[in-house]
Design goal:
This protein has 238 residues and is of the alpha+beta class. The chain folds into 2 domains: 4-151, Jelly Rolls (Sandwich); 154-229, Orthogonal Bundle (Arc Repressor Mutant, subunit A), CATH 1.10.10.10. It has 9 helices and 11 strands. The chain has helices at residues 4-16, 25-34, 89-93, 116-125, 127-152, 156-167, 184-190, 198-203, 222-229; strands spanning 36-40, 45-47, 55-61, 64-69, 75-81, 86-87, 102-105, 109-115, 174-179, 210-213, 216-221. Strands 1-8-3-6 form a 4-stranded antiparallel beta sheet. A 4-stranded antiparallel beta sheet has the order 2-7-4-5. A 3-stranded antiparallel beta sheet has the order 9-11-10. Helix 1 (4-16) crosses helix 2 and helix 4 packs across helix 5. The longest helix is centred in the middle third of the chain and has 26 residues, at 127-152. Residues 234-238 have low confidence and may be disordered.
Length: 238
């Protein structure tokens, strides 16, 4: 029989997650009971394109990239997800019920696997639960639009600046030490920047208070960097 402390741990994790923050406690308890902890090594596949979409996932620790392979054999990064974020929810609602992308751990990663059937049944049974989930998905859609804008309209230094701002704690505005969460080449591909030009683009942020110290980046003033990246409080970086 599963230890009660493991279920309680899953409840606490779910309750802190944006997707479930305002969901009734009974739903949290049920999802916690029927979900599973899973661990993946760096570069280990979580699922592959066209695999049966039997679950979606919440990241507890580590980072996960979603990607597809182009005809030329290049890896096209769709998104990279951080601890506390969920991914593959869209596959839950897909009529094909398959994953439309590949998912791979970027580093040692732990996730909570949430069964598709459980999630769909709750949406069918409880309209309040369904409306909350739709609201969360709508917010995610807005975030995706921001990402598309960043990689199509903004300059390479602005894209990097917006990425760094996302890593800054919201309560801090100056002298923030930011550690790059994963390899620079992956960050570059995520931001649609040539990896060989990433360092040059990063260096162009120095006049706006961004200083590189090894893998760590110092953001001297978030307001100054936000102004350069054309970001205000209503439009935070995704």
């Amino acid at each position: 029989m599963e230890a009660a402390e493991d279920i309680e741990k899953r409840q606490r994790i779910l309750a802190r997650t944006p997707l479930f923050q305002h969901v009734e406690k009974r739903h949290i308890q049920d999802i916690a009971t029927k979900s599973l902890f899973k661990s993946f090594k760096n570069k280990q596949e979580i699922f592959a394109l066209n695999d049966k979409a039997h679950s979606f996932f919440l990241i507890i620790e580590g980072w996960v990239k979603l990607y597809r392979m182009t005809r030329e054999g290049e890896e096209a990064i769709i998104n990279v997800f951080a601890p506390g974020e969920t991914f593959a929810e869209a596959a839950v609602f897909s009529s094909r019920q398959v994953y439309p992308v590949n998912a791979q751990a970027v580093e040692k990663t732990e996730v909570l696997e949430i069964p598709r059937t459980l999630f769909v049944n709750k949406i069918k049974e409880d309209s309040d639960f369904a409306l909350h989930i739709l609201g969360s998905i709508s917010a995610r859609q807005h975030s995706l639009i921001q990402q598309i804008e960043q990689v199509t309209v903004k300059s390479a230094p602005q894209r990097i600046g917006a990425f760094l701002l996302r890593l800054c704690p919201p309560e801090q505005t100056s002298n923030i030490a930011v550690e790059l969460p994963y390899d620079k080449s992956l960050i570059a591909r995520r931001l649609n920047i040539q990896p060989e030009t990433f360092s040059r683009a990063l260096a162009k942020l120095k006049p706006y208070g961004v200083v590189q110290q090894g893998r760590q980046i110092i953001v001297m003033n978030t307001e100054k960097l936000s102004d350069f990246c054309d970001i205000d409080d209503r439009d935070k970086p995704c």
